[in-house]
Amino acid sequence: MIDIKKVGIIGAGQMGSGIAQVCAQAGYTVIVFDQSAQAVADSFERINKGITRSVEKDIITADAGEKARTLLVPAASASDLADCDLVIEAATENEDIKKAIFKAVSEHLKPEAILASNTSSISITRLATASDRPGKFIGLHFMNPVPVMKLVEIIRGIATDAETYEAAVRFAESLGKITANSQDYPAFIVNRVLIPMINEAIYTLYEGVGTVEAIDTAMKLGANHPMGPLELGDFIGLDTVLAIMNVLYDGLSDSKYRPCPLLVKYVEAGWLGRKTGRGFYDYRGDKPVPTR
Ligand code: CAA
Predict the structure, then answer these.
(1) Residue 50 CB–ligand 1 contact under 6 Å
(2) Following DSSP, what letter does each residue of 75-136 receive, concatenated?
(3) Closest C-alpha among 25, 16, 106 to residue 71
(4) Active-site entry in 117, 153, 182, 199
(5) Is any ligand 1 atom within 6 A of the Cβ of residue 148?
(6) For this structure, is 173 an active site residue?
(7) 288 CB less than 6 Å from ligand 1?
(8) Long-range CB contact pairs, 41-47, < 8 A, 24+
(9) Coil, helix or strand for 224?
(10) Could you tell me which residues are beta bridge partners of residue 137?
(11) What separation in Å is there between the alpha carbon of 145 and the centre of ligand 1?
């Protein structure tokens, strides 16, 4: 079975940065690649801040933090991933983009390398067909914020071999995470349950049942959720929430998964949540203010 020492990350956004951080904190050498060099530079800044935070929170020692910083390497091209034992794709939640990445990267990898996708909803079986190694292809779905959340969902495609699955479980556990297995159906477990709840909260707002504040307060204090559903939607990114609703709607052909028109409107406006400064809350001032 492959001994994972070097990990490649493709996509240096919020999730890719978080995954790179936890891998480096666990002692892996991490190669970070993104088609935008600026995204890689921004990612390293985010990861450095994250490592400082992990030290402050006593998640890791100061020495482990310093060591982690030395293990992170920016990549200039996909060929820099050539000697990675595991490559985790964490690009945007778009099937065509992900497939194009797997097609392009496959030729650079050594034959025994494992390819994983951090997709939060798209079929692992389908994504695997774009690679040259469906047997060594698996879903490793991290939760946001990666350095804080304990879970990694593990999703086997129809062709994923037993060795790859076992290596993936051991790898996730070596990061200090707990795994849950999901069958390869649209949005897996967490997002099959969580994202329709957020969509329903948006319907609750759309239909005037409650205000943004009332809905979030109700769910925080009435159901003990750490964040209200609208706040959480902004945190995840409303474009991602919409993309996952569409995967559920298309993949399960059930009208109960239709995206709320108000969610569509926010995404069309470019009000995607925290990352764009505005979603169901406006984050541009000192404290978040509801946008309706
Ligand atoms: N390294 C990097 N970032 C860190 C970190 C670390 N060691 N520790 C915390 N963070 C980040 C968080 O992302 C957040 O960012 P900013 O404040 O910089 O904007 C911030 O630091 C919050 O950290 P706090 O120290 O204030 O942590 P907290 O104790 O207040 O808890 C929380 C925050 C863990 C996010 C909590 O509110 C929570 O559990 N919320 C729900 C999160 C959730 O449900 N996540 C799952 C989303 S669904 C998903 O991920 C699946 C998907 O595919 C869409």
Answers:
(1) yes
(2) -SSGGGGTT-SEEEE---S-HHHHHHHHHHHHTTS-TT-EEEE--SSS-HHHHHTTSS-GGG
(3) 25
(4) 153
(5) yes
(6) no
(7) no
(8) 41/74, 42/12, 43/12, 43/13, 43/16, 43/17, 44/72, 44/74, 46/14, 46/17, 47/17, 47/20, 47/21, 47/72
(9) coil
(10) 115
(11) 4
Q: Do residues 122 and 192 lie in contact, with contact meaning Cβ atoms separated by under 8 Å?
A: no
- Identity of the residue numbered 170: R
Integer Cα distance of 115 and 94 in angstroms: 17
Angle at 15 between CA 12 and CA 16, to 5 degrees: 35
List, for residues 135-174, the tens digit of each pLDDT value. Answer: 999 999 999 999 999 999 999 999 999 999 999 999 999 9
CATH tag for 192-290 (out of 1.10.1040.10, 1.10.3720.10, 3.30.70.660, 1.10.10.10): 1.10.1040.10
pTM over 0.90? The answer is yes
Q: How deeply is 35 buried, as exposed, middle or buried, from its count of CB atoms within 10 A (0-12, 13-18, 19+)?
A: middle
Taking only the tens place, the pLDDT of each residue in 243-288 is: 999 999 999 999 999 999 999 999 999 999 999 999 999 999 999 9
Considering only CA atoms, which residue is closest to atom 7 of ligand 1? Answer: 54
Written as six digits, the tokens of 151 are: 């879970």
Domain with residues 6-182, CATH architecture: 3-Layer(aba) Sandwich (3.40)
CA distance 236 to 112: 33
Q: Is 149 in the pocket of ligand 1 (CB under 6 A)?
A: yes
Domain boundaries, the chain: 6-182, 192-290
Let me know if 141 is a catalytic residue: yes
Q: What is the pLDDT of residues 24-33, one digit of tens each?
A: 999 999 999 9
Residues 234 and 280: beta-carbon distance below 8 Å:
yes
